[in-house]
Amino acid sequence: MPMLSPRPRPRPPRAKRAPVVRSVMPVALAGATAEFKLGGVTAAAHPEGALWLAEARTLIVSDLHLEKGSSFALRGQMLPPYDTHAALTKLDALMRRLAPDIVVSLGDSFHDRGGPARMHYEDRALLQDMIGRCDWIWVEGNHDGKAAETLGGVAREDLHLGALILRHHPRAGAAPGEIAGHLHPCARVSGRGRSVRRRCFATDGARLVMPAFGAFTGGLNICDDAFAPLFPEGAMALVLGRERVLPAPQERLLHD
Predict the structure, then answer these.
(1) How many domains does the chain have?
(2) Where are the beta strands (DSSP E) in 39-167?
């Protein structure tokens, strides 16, 4: 009599893995700006690339890289010499609209330490007029050090502003409330059958990396590995549109 093979025991059904749900940072669109909480403080991202803290009457910009055109010209690469004027007039318009008590330039304000000496006299006069309207703070960057302080204002390695800490270089593992620059974040976003690449704020609600404000500054895609230690759970891009800031969650962001 042939031996009968035992009937296989039915395997228990695999437990379904719970889908990973990424929390979406709440953002309120208010006209051209995007308002959100950063380390418990209300902040507004402006399409010019500046951050406004209304309660502290503080305007923050980063990576102006003033006199980058003249710096390249010294090395034989001729760029149009209008970058400083373009950045300053954009910042001046923001200041006239918001009337800040404090302005913070968050590092790399000049492209090199000789930048202040190369400024056109009209740009220098405009900048010094702006400095005279408020408390002006230069946070030291890797390009300029304390060179900008020769024009007025004060230089600081970093700045504590209530629950927030402002510095040029972002630090992995920093406490909530860090605002930094240096990385020049940009986002590539898909929509309507095409993609666009624009400067952006990068934030997860605990910390924020500012876009570069300068006219000749490039950008690093927010999907680059350099951002991973700063935002281990991913980050939202607050994309600088032509007239308003557009939030883009992690799942809409594309690599270059």
Answers:
(1) 1
(2) 41-45, 51-53, 58-61, 102-105, 135-139, 154-156, 158-161, 164-167
